[in-house]
Design goal:
Number of domains: 1
Structural class: mainly alpha
Helix content: 55-70%
């Protein structure tokens, strides 16, 4: 079981990264297109995953407030 645990962890992290890649907006992906990220993650799992999380994933800068009390415009109108 000791030798199998790293394989399971890498496989789980690869699946998690592939799901995140599939849900990412193509316009926001950085450095290379999504299809190249997919190939890198599948062929070089640890390097590809690390590259995706550091260099490739979209950075969400302008996330709208989720609750009314987080929205300064809403609070100003009270």
């Amino acid at each position: 079981m000791g030798r199998l645990l790293p394989v399971i962890l890498v496989l789980a992290a690869t699946i998690f990264t592939l799901v995140h890649l599939a849900q990412a907006d193509s316009k926001g992906v950085r450095v290379v297109p999504k299809i190249l990220w997919l190939l890198m993650i599948l062929t070089l799992p640890i390097i590809g995953m690390t590259g995706w999380w550091i260099f490739g994933r979209p950075i969400e800068e302008d996330v709208p407030p989720t609750a009314p009390d987080d929205d300064p415009d809403f609070l100003r109108k009270l």
